[in-house]
Design goal:
Blueprint: H1 2-24, E1 27-33, E2 55-60, E3 69-75, E4 85-92, E5 95-103, E6 111-116, E7 124-130, E8 138-139, E9 141-142, E10 150-153, E11 156-157, E12 161-162, E13 164-172, H2 176-184
Antiparallel strand pairs: 1-13, 2-7, 2-10, 3-6, 3-8, 3-13, 4-5, 4-7, 9-12, 10-11
Amino acid sequence: MEKKKRYLLYWAVVCLLVFIIGAAIPRSEMRSLGLEGANQANLKNATEELTEGKTLTFTVAPPEKTTDQIGFFVTLNGHEFKDGMLRIIASDGEKVIGGRDFPLADLNGDQFLFVKLEEVPEILTVRIASDGRKDGPSIWLNETTVTPGEAVMDGETLSQSLVYNLTYTVQVHRFVQPLILALIL
């Protein structure tokens, strides 16, 4: 009987170690900013069409230094484009830290357009412009929730937040999964 109690004690120590080690090891978890409250049902308004000469400027303070990209939900407003570009440039002050040109003819429907960031500034500034002369795409506005950041269209602050997706990772400790594993053991 003493031998069984000793093995049971060893097994309990192993289960406890499984829980402690599992909870102590941090795991990377992806998070996003800018999508709070946004879904297709409450995307009723878009910014003015981005045509030649119009620029949308968006500034936001990234929540983590692990921010790797930002994307904006773009609508073509029912237009079909044969030429032209939509340009998204991310910067830290005057220093460009990411950017991409999207041919308007290659875009279809409503979609997110992402730009990778080479580094993460204290304040991220993104400028979005199109060279469409008569018609252009628009960026969706969030109808229900105020999200971090400020959007300005040609010098006028927008009354609603933009729908954007700024992605970053954080290190988290998980307790439930190691506890369940220890209990199963």
